[in-house]
Structures are given as structure tokens and as C-alpha cells.
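Hi support team,

I've been running sequence recovery on a batch of backbones for a student project. Most finish fine, but this one hangs at about 90% for roughly twenty minutes before it completes. I'm not sure whether the input is malformed or the queue is just slow. I've pasted the C-alpha cells below so you can try to reproduce it. Let me know if you need the job ID as well.

Thanks,
M.K.
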């Protein structure tokens, strides 16, 4: 497959391969703060509540980067990558994820990107 010059400049996150990655939904009413282009400075009841959204995977696998409505959630590995590189304008809030089978999953974060970036390096 030949790449065009435009393809080298932009990334689009897309789910590919198996359909065992859950789509997440807010299980609490604090998601409005995540739509602002400013830091969240109010105290939130942590961990925030997240649930699996329909369609439910039969067997799920928790990826490092997941869709959370129109927002995103990420693993501790992703948070550590951002922390290690001292990325400005991103906040991570611990979440408790409840699967459609009632299992509680921890170790993930709701991600609030409040800074606008003019470009993203394709190699991290």
C-alpha cells in the first residue's frame, strides 16, 4: 500500500482486528467537565465510575487506549508514558470499570486532553 504525503501528517485512532475491546460509557454524571478546553480543577469523586457499553464483547481485552463516549480512557502504561514525557495539558483521573458481567476492573484512567496540540510526533 502506497502512502500519500497527507497520510504522514495525521493519525486517526481506529479499532482494528478482533472485536474483544470494550467500548466504555460514563457511569457517573461528571463527564461534562471532560468536554471543556481547560483543566478540571473541581474535586471529583474518585475513582470515577465507568461501564461497558453495548455491544458487549463475549471475552474482553483491556487495551492501553479505549473509547469512553466522546472521550478516552487509558491504562497505567499510557499514563506513565505521558508522565515520563512530561506532556502538558493532559489530566488522568482513576476510574473503576464495571463490565457487563459485573466484574470490577481497576488500573485505568479517564483522560482529559485540555490543551490543543498543533502536531503529534508519529514516533514516541
Amino acid at each position: 500500500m502506497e502512502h500519500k504525503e497527507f497520510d504522514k501528517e495525521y493519525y486517526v485512532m481506529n479499532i482494528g482486528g478482533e472485536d474483544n475491546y470494550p467500548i466504555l460509557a460514563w457511569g457517573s454524571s461528571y463527564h461534562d467537565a471532560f468536554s471543556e478546553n481547560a483543566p478540571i480543577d473541581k474535586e471529583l469523586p474518585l475513582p470515577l465510575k465507568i461501564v461497558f457499553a453495548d455491544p458487549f464483547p463475549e471475552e474482553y481485552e483491556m487495551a492501553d487506549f479505549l473509547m469512553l463516549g466522546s472521550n478516552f480512557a487509558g491504562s497505567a502504561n499510557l499514563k506513565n508514558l505521558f508522565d515520563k514525557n512530561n506532556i502538558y495539558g493532559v489530566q488522568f483521573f482513576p476510574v473503576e470499570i464495571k463490565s457487563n458481567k459485573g466484574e470490577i476492573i481497576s488500573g485505568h484512567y479517564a483522560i482529559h486532553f485540555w490543551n490543543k496540540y498543533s502536531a503529534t510526533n508519529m514516533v514516541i
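--
Follow-up from support: It reproduced on our side and the slowdown came from queue contention, not your input. The longest strand covers residues 104-113. No action needed from you.
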